[in-house]
Structures are given as C-alpha cells and as structure tokens.
Design goal:
Layout lengths: L1 H10 L15 E3 L2 E5 L6 H10 L7 E2 L7 H12 L5 E7 L8 E2 L25 E5 L9 E5 L6 E5 L7
Parallel strand pairs: 4-8
Antiparallel strand pairs: 1-2, 2-8, 3-8, 4-5, 4-6, 6-7
Bound molecules: calcium ion.
Length: 164
C-alpha cells in the first residue's frame, strides 16, 4: 500500500535530468543535489554549514518547487532510507510573522498539503521551517515552524539562489 501511494505520488514528477553531477557529499534525489546532515545546528548555523559545502557558495538549506515534485522525491528518499528525523529546510517568516518565504525569495504556499495540521501557527517565536518524518507517519513528511535557535539536523541543496 505504501509503495502504491509512493508510485502514484511520483508518477507526475518525472525526472528529466537524471545525469546531474552531485559533488560529494551531495547525492542526487529527483533533479537536485541534496545533503542530509548528520549533525545538529541552529537554523542560521545550518545555512552557513550548507554554504561551506559548495566552493562557490551556491548551496543553502533546501527549497521545494511549486508543484511539489521536490517534496515527493525527498519524501520517497527519506522513507526508503528510514531517515526518521527533524530537518531544517530553507524557509522562514522572520521578516513578517505569518508570511512564509523560501530562502530563494518565493512565497511558501500556506495551503500546501505538506504542512502539519494547524501549521504554521502565527507565532513570533516559531520562525523557521522544518520537515520531519516519523516511522509511524507512512504517507508523507510534514512541515512545521519551530524556534530558529534549536539544534536540528538539516537538509542542504546545491544550486539554491538565495536572496534572503
Ligand atoms: Ca512566525
């Protein structure tokens, strides 16, 4: 049943560029190069760490595309490798509470299905974006807003054009 669900989710997310060269330690998932951290950092420290992984500083915390294909590819990978943890990704509402943007400047769809129930909460203290996956949640990973200074694992992505 899980495999069937995954297959349906990924059918509309065909990988066109399957020959992307992902420099170590990045791995290809879908059409992008990602790195799942094995250390815990605050949101800002995690961004710095991601940048340090690319010689030309084009890496940052991961951002998802508008049609959710990145989300589905990452979700599939996390379940395949049982990456059941909480990871910072590149989104924040630090500038205007309740107005969420990716680090590349695009707005984050607040109606997207990947938010946890009743998330994101309008909160001055929860201003940074995490995705999390648990073994008991087999259908999807979820996004939530958390306090930026907390240490969490994080997901870096190569070729993110950061503007914030
Ligand atoms: Ca907030």
């Amino acid at each position: 049943m899980i495999n069937f669900t995954l297959t349906v989710l990924l059918l509309s997310c065909v990988v066109v560029n399957s020959y992307a060269e992902c420099q170590d330690p990045f791995i290809q998932i879908g059409e992008s190069c990602y790195y799942f951290s094995d250390l815990l950092l605050s949101y800002q420290e995690a961004r710095k760490y991601c940048r340090s992984l690319s010689a030309n500083h084009r890496a940052d915390l991961a951002v998802f595309d508008q049609i959710d294909c990145d989300y589905h590819h990452v979700f599939s990978h996390m379940h395949q490798y049982e990456l059941y943890n909480t990871y910072w990704i590149g989104g924040t509402d630090q500038e205007v509470d309740g107005f969420w943007i990716w680090v590349d400047g695009r707005p984050i769809d607040l109606k997207a299905s990947y938010w946890s129930k009743d998330e994101p909460a309008v909160s001055d203290t929860n201003n940074c974006l995490v995705m999390f996956s648990r073994s008991e949640i087999v259908t999807r990973i979820r996004l939530e807003d958390l306090t930026c200074s907390y240490p969490h694992y994080f997901l870096c992505q190569l070729d993110v054009l950061s503007v914030i």
